[in-house]
């Protein structure tokens, strides 16, 4: 609470006692400034970094799997088998890409700054000085003028019609009048008048910096693909140790036993075989391919003016089932435009259009009055003899012209209060008519006239003249984005529900929502919302539009929805949206918004076009569907590699591959094809359960391949086939079967898929036919019996994979969730009258595609 005592403003603070705020017009002296600097009472603020560079490097380099790969890599180098250490480059690429992603997220967060003004204007020793923001000290006297951004929290001590825009902080779009004793918050902007204020909170205690610090807490976007892969890698980590010991024992036994192998120096062959088995179990390429798919998706979106600040966000928006929209800057352009004039008086006094022209051209006109310039251009210059400037506290202004009486422009309910309007002639039904116009989402003003002159005394007292008569009702509206309706229609077609949360009047927000096709009969005043998150979540499930929402309430709404199992996207452009955008699964900011909002958002619409969101959803669904298809390739390899390790460990047979042979077959049947498949068009609609579906194919297919190779190896060993020929036959079987898995997962085979698969088949033939590659890979010519065994094993494996795929497709169809009728109805309610799109469609509406 602020109260005045003998020239000082006293600030009562709970727990801190009283502190006098100096209101001397000369401001602080140089000595007083130096004292405060010495005590650390400056505006210098270094927000803790979102995440240290070392922690990012440590998290991406010092992982369990990197440790395993590094140990295998070093072991092969130490025994002189560098040819079998090619897998090390994949691990290096994974580490670099993972670190790069997180450094990008860190850099965006560290650039967060709510205060853009390069300097602040203060009064010290009776003179004005421009000082750096960090050099503002406690009790400094700020000099505030139009266009300034407030550098620190302060108390107003002098005001000349001082008006501030606090929308970036609070979400309220109306300007706020500030009188002596009122608080001004750091980050707000002076839009009218002038004044001075004494700083009472600086640095970390200032409102803007507190909000900034809270928004800068580091977190990565939730990604089902990434979390599923991490969970899978965790499972593999548990089994790698026991399996590697099992394989090592089998290889040592196959070399004649531990003692003989060590004595004869054959232990290195056992180590190479064990490394081959271990490395094959780790789907390193899948992690790399996922990162590449995200990166390419981000590049594609960048060409559409959508900046992806964290790569997994491309996939994240594909999973969104509820999107929260801020009104200003998202559904609307954020500016006020003139709508229409509604005459009230049967015989309006002469010159009323000239008065409106004067209001629009007035240098001190606010944003609403400036909208009158275009419909009412100046045709006759008017010179006022007295005026009462507009103030948001009373919602009207007045001007008097010589011989022209008094003209008043303001809110109908303020110019003609209910207590007065009932008996005033010419005002019958005025308030009802004005209320009806306001309910349609339009801001309403009335121009009234009185024949009484506006005297200087009356202007000083800010009194309305008597015998006021309404002349015309003027309506203004926010400029609704032209792409908002069709974008909301697309979300309705795709099963994405919409909630609109704004800091503005709930009924105005509801009216604008109806204008863009949302079924919102009314808006909910957020001041009545429950604090309990469970109760809040239940209410938000039922209602669509919320107004007067504070920044913390926006965050609570997002939190409540996520607790109820929704995947939530949040759009906005003001600082008041930053906390909610940070809390959402996917935060989306407009380029025209604040730097705080853009820094914590996952996606930024660079040209502010809301219509880009359907394309972002489609791109995310393409990436998710392609990564699922690619993951089946890699996980099939992991499954058969694990199966081979266990089978050959139990059977005490030599492992049938060298690491380099596995590296090449992996590249031909998985690595190269996966790169192209991950980038191809794919319109499949997103369905949760990526890992379960992938494993339901990969594990049975891997078991089939492992059993066939084990059977082939046993039969070849019993037939007395040499080890190098046995390995060559195993490599051929794996190459053929791997290509068939690629064919199965690529169906339908058309276009570029034919080229890709054909190229890989030619590559498989080439590694046997070209002497240089055959020698490097230690591939030898196959005897007749080996060729027959390899061909028979390949055919058996192909038949088994076809059976697995047949069963898998039907199992996936049964696992696919159905959308409850209640949910469909709820979603349809957000965009009534929208025709159903084709099942499974992820493309934007035809209108969006036509615009490109």
Automatic annotation (TrEMBL):
The chain crosses the membrane at residues 61-79, 85-103, 232-250, 270-296, 639-658, 664-683, 695-714, 726-745, 752-773, 785-807. Residues 831-852 are annotated as: Disordered. Signal peptide: none annotated. Keywords: Membrane, Translocase, Transmembrane, Transmembrane helix. Its main location: membrane. SUPFAM superfamilies: Calcium ATPase, transduction domain A, Calcium ATPase, transmembrane domain M, HAD-like. It is found in: Cell membrane. This is HAD-IC family P-type ATPase. The lineage of its organism: Bacteria, Bacillati, Actinomycetota, Actinomycetes, Micrococcales.
